Amino acid sequence: xxGISNWFSFTSKEEREERSAEYFKRMFPxxxxxxxxxxxxxxxxxSAKTSDGDKLYQMLIVREALLQKDEKxxxxxxxxxxxxxxxxxxxx
Length: 92
Known about the structure:
Blueprint: H1 13-27, H2 32-45, H3 52-91
């Protein structure tokens, strides 16, 4: 796709492909078979008159939000663990 958005892209083709592969791996950790199964599930569950691509896009947006929420939760747990370990050392 050589749209106007690519006019100002300062990343190489290799970088874009690498980012795309990383994103795919994050969204579908079990691979292409997972993506296919989820697409089939979306077709069965959602009867709205939208394209399969739109349904998949909406699912990915929700998944990204959930992954970000999980990541924030993990970071908060790490901070709490570090604080408790520092307070243990400070009491000695």
